[in-house]
Amino acid sequence: MAFSDSTAGKVRSKLGDVNRQKENQQTWKPLSVGASVYMSDRVRTGTESEVIFGLPDGSVVSIAENAEMVIADLFEKDGVFRTKLDIKKGHVGFDVKKLSEKSSFEFKTGTATAAIRGTKGFIGGEKGFVGSLKEGKLEITSTKSGRKFSIGAGETALGRDSLVVLKLATSGSPSLAKALAKVTEDSTLSIDQIVEAAKVADSTVAAKENAPLDEESMKVSSVSSVVCSGGLQIEGSYRTAVSTASLVVKAGTYVSENLATSTDGKTHTFSVSVPVTDENKLWTLTSADVVLTAGEKVVTETVSYTADKSCAEVNTRPAQIRFSSYDSLRCVANVAVSGLEDDAAIFSVDVDGTPKTHESLTRNALKRAKLSEGVHEYVFSAVDMAKNKVELNKKLGCFPPRKFNVQILGKKREVVSNPPGTPKGYDKIVKTVQFTVRVPGGDPSVLYKVVVKQNSRIILEESLNQIQALDYQVPVELVRKGVNKIEVEVTHKSGYIVKAQKVYEVF
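User: That's the sequence. What structure does it adopt?
Assistant: Structure tokens below.
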């Protein structure tokens, strides 16, 4: 099968010192929760550290402390997955989902390789090998001898040149993996001594994991009931001897890192700050759970909190204002105010810098603003509970249908004769037509067009921004021996039209 689509795993949780080295790079960089990991990435952990990955096929892999692993293969094509992890040091836990017939999931160590169809347990070993299953089946091939064999649920295979299969009560347990890591790496031990050490480790781990866990094992001592800057602050103490124990805070879909940094059976303190913002939607919740999981036992304590939505660190997202529609004849503008889920805001409208209206909004809304007649600068704004402000600036016109008139100075009809003493060859007669457009408010911006015609021929035309005044003086060259009809037509932005005319008779 030809694979061409590389995929990515994702870091679900981490504890302590976890670093990643990209292919062909020399530097190691810290790996954080939520980060993606890709084929050829090398990941290592420090002392008392751990990292858990979610893989594209739904499997989960955990790298224990002081371990190093290379993601040799990580491909997916048409629902078929191929995964191969090369364990360079330490051991790795796994919970592999049942694979399709063509999919594959393999581990490689310094002494053997193992193929998985769907199982749960751990595998590792640099100088020696250890593979252990809680459930499922593991196909193992020795690198040195080429011998193949398999182990099943509740079985553990370990050794160096040759492998021994044991039935252990805690097979597949991460605590057993940690206990056996040093045993298989000790070259001074014989195979019989390795077996005996494994049995002792099994008994010790079983005793710890089955130890009773009482309510005093985890206690929340303080919590910030009203959340503002710094997030939800939770402090408390815990006590557990189970090495695989986890202590996390859960709020909605948020899960903190493991806060159980020590599992020696003694009382230790923990402190965590959970971000509570509108970005992560945690500001709508009223409680979070602190959960201690040790083996099969779980202790949970629920803490209540209230997000202060007037706090800028909590309420980080301002509302949004979008221009929806506008009608200059009806003199209304519609704007949509959104982003107010679980929030509130004061919506205001300013006209030419002067406040006009304001009202309180507790949800997303479509707001209609009444416009003032004429052309004005409008500012639509919304200020939420945390004083986040958003503005929308628009220059809008309001032109309701209004009656107006056009007045032409002088008589409506004039008779013109050729002036006496006109030089020969100078045959022009020029008159100046004066007229005034009278509109309410005296604002020329309400006009759409001014047209002057002489005998149906346009001699002047202005529109929109060209119209700067309401008084006109238009020179007209009259046609001799005939009638000169001057027509003035003025169109308001509302569509209302007014006409006026003047006639010159020339003999």
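Helices lie at 174-185, 191-209.
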